[in-house]
Design goal:
Elements lengths: L5 E12 L9 E7 L24 E4 H11 L6 E5 L9 H9 L3 E6 L13 E4 L12 H10 L4 E8 L2 H13 L5 E5 L9 H18 L4 E3 L3 H6 L6
Parallel strand pairs: 2-4, 4-5, 5-6, 6-7, 7-8, 8-9
Antiparallel strand pairs: 1-2, 1-3
Helix pairs in contact: 1-2
The site of iron/sulfur cluster (SF4) has 12 residues, from loops.
Length: about 240
């Protein structure tokens, strides 16, 4: 197959509910692409990131992906959540055009390191800048390029918070981009299992931290899918 016309897919599953951010609870099908330009310390989707898993990824065309989504949703258009890895590493413009023509809506989450002109065809772009505990560095120019590329699409920011340094990072980024809706969620530090007690404690700490700080524009949410199913794949 011609690589420029195809998309590396790690998994397609659903319908399930969106477990995070602005559309938490909304029925959706997940299309998880393979490949990421980051290596976050607590990444819980390494199977969609690291080259050693590449043998498990499938190269699919836009039409093949939409056919699979349609089969899963019983032919009913719904919101397609594009996740990864970093889905911005792929060429998704054609899929967005075909999907939108058939009534699908598209939400995409990315760390904000690669801008694509097809961001403007998304319904929702979630930028999730990675805080200090990830071990990654934010490139502000590239992040701004992503925001500029979004055009009229709805843009929200989401932060995974492990500790005070992450909180302060999120606070500072929110000041820079004060017009964007902000979602905070506690980090599940383990990449292989869910530590429910520490997650609940971190959630409580985060809520109290936000309230004590008077950061009333921030919304603190759990990872609903982790609460319900843990780190099980495909739900
Ligand atoms: Fe994992 Fe996301 Fe970080 Fe990529 S950006 S390594 S997918 S947490």
């Amino acid at each position: 197959m011609n690589g420029s016309e195809t998309i590396w897919i790690s998994e397609i599953f659903g319908p399930t509910i969106q477990g995070e951010g602005a559309f938490i609870g909304q029925p959706t099908v997940f299309v998880r692409t393979g490949g990421c330009d980051y290596r976050c310390a607590w990444c819980d989707t390494l199977y969609a990131v690291e080259d050693r898993y590449r043998k498990d990824w499938i190269e699919m065309t836009a039409e093949e992906i939409l056919a699979k989504v349609s089969k899963l949703s019983g032919g009913q258009p719904l919101m397609i959540t594009l996740s990864g890895g970093n889905p911005a590493t792929q060429s998704l413009g054609k899929m967005l055009a075909l999907g939108r023509a058939s009534g699908y809506t598209f939400a995409l989450e990315t760390q904000g390191s690669i801008a694509k002109d097809w961001f403007a065809d998304l319904d929702v772009l979630t930028i999730s800048p990675k805080p200090p505990s990830s071990g990654m560095q934010t490139n502000w120019k590239k992040l701004q390029n992503c925001l500029d590329a979004a055009g009229m699409a709805m843009v929200v920011m989401k932060f995974v918070i492990l500790n005070e340094a992450d909180y302060l990072y999120a606070r500072e980024v929110a000041r820079r981009f004060s017009k964007l809706p902000i979602y905070l969620q506690p980090c599940n530090q383990s990449t292989v299992s869910v530590e429910k007690e520490s997650l609940n404690g971190r959630m409580l700490w985060l809520v109290e931290r936000v309230l004590a700080d008077g950061w009333f524009a921030a919304r603190v949410l759990p990872q609903l899918h982790v609460m319900l199913w843990g780190n099980i794949r495909g739900v």
